[in-house]
Amino acid sequence: METKKVWLVTGASKGLGLTLVLKLLANNYQVAATSRTVNALKEKVPDHLENFFPLEMDVTNSDNVKNAIDSVIARFGKIDIVVNNAGFSQIGTLEELTDEEVKNNFSVNVFGTLNVIRNVAKYLRQQRSGHIFNIASIGGYIGSFPGFGVYCSTKFAVAGFTEALSEEMRAFNVNTTLVYPGYFRTGFLSQGSVKTPATPIADYVAARQMEKAHLNEINGNQPNDPEKAAEVLITLSKHDNPPVHFFMGEDAYQYANLKIAAIQENMEKDKALATSTGF
Questions:
Q1: How much is the pLDDT for 1?
Q2: Statement: the pTM of the whole predicted model exceeds 0.85
Q3: What residue spans define the domains of the chain?
Q4: 3-state secondary structure of 259
Q5: In this structure, are residues 102 and 150 in contact, taking their beta carbons and an 8 Å threshold?
Q6: What pLDDT, on a 0 to 100 scale, did the predictor assign at position 214?
Q7: pLDDT grade, residue 48 (50/70/90)?
Q8: pLDDT tops 60 at residue 247
Q9: Taking residues 43-53, what's their average pLDDT?
């Protein structure tokens, strides 16, 4: 039965992940939800739900991810839909951020997602069905935000390997959807979620202004509703032929269209020179 599908949602203790988990449970889905601490999940989801399986999982540790996924299979017998939602934003210019700060953002956003894919793919491949949602960001399509270069680059990486993943898994009847959300009114930009540079450099005025705008003006005033985002993801999971690329939110569409138009304009302007390289 469609309503008995098993979902695995990472980064589920807050934000879009938590909203999705609560909506799935309200609709009688079986849900395995992961967070760095299981108590963070238990505190926010009603107790004694038979369909709810809270799990402590460190996405940066492949063995830990494998054990968690194996336990989901042991509990529910299968996994139908995977939502790679765990991630955070590291703000800071490329000069400001330390090697450790950059690697930490990549460890969670990129290698964490890869760890989940690597360990869940064999189950989906063997059962010849499934759907993987990789939650990127509109910042994974357009990266011209000063102070957000590293975060955007992690999401560009997710976009890149998701395109390959969709082709690799297609032969096994496993769908893949890369989601580019715009600004959603979650705690994503709140203190404790977003990280700022440990050693900011005052000269980067534009980056500081962009940082301040996100933390003080955009945070809490995002134009998109996470409840509706959760409904959209559930709707997409029911499609027979879901899209590989999915821009979510009017702002995401506006940013994507601006980049597409700019690239097309630049390509046309420089076409003669750019295509003059052939033998």
A1: 47
A2: yes
A3: 6-267
A4: helix
A5: yes
A6: 87
A7: low
A8: yes
A9: 84
pLDDT at 3 over 60: no
Residue 89 carries which side chain, given as an amino acid letter?
A: S
Distance CA 244, CA 177 (A): 4
Dihedrals phi, psi of 56, to nearest 5 degrees: -85, 125
C-alpha span between 31 and 33 (Å, rounded): 6
How far is it, in rounded angstroms, from Cα 103 to Cα 224? 30
With beta carbons less than 8 A apart as the criterion, state whether 214 and 208 touch: no
CA–chain centroid gap for 265, Å, is: 30
> Do the beta carbons of residue 162 and residue 134 sit within 8 Å?
yes
Would you tell me which CATH number, out of the four given (3.40.50.300, 3.80.30.20, 3.40.50.720, 3.30.365.10), belongs to the domain 6-267?
3.40.50.720
Query: Which amino acid, one-letter code, is at 218?
Result: I
Block residue for tokens 């940013």: 255
DSSP letter, residue 184: B
Residue 184 forms beta bridges with which residues? 224
Q: Which long-range contacts (CB under 8 A, 24 or more apart) does 113-117 make?
A: 113/59, 113/84, 113/86, 113/87, 113/158, 114/161, 115/59, 115/60, 115/61, 115/62, 115/65, 116/8, 116/10, 116/59, 116/65, 116/69, 116/82, 116/84, 117/82, 117/84, 117/165
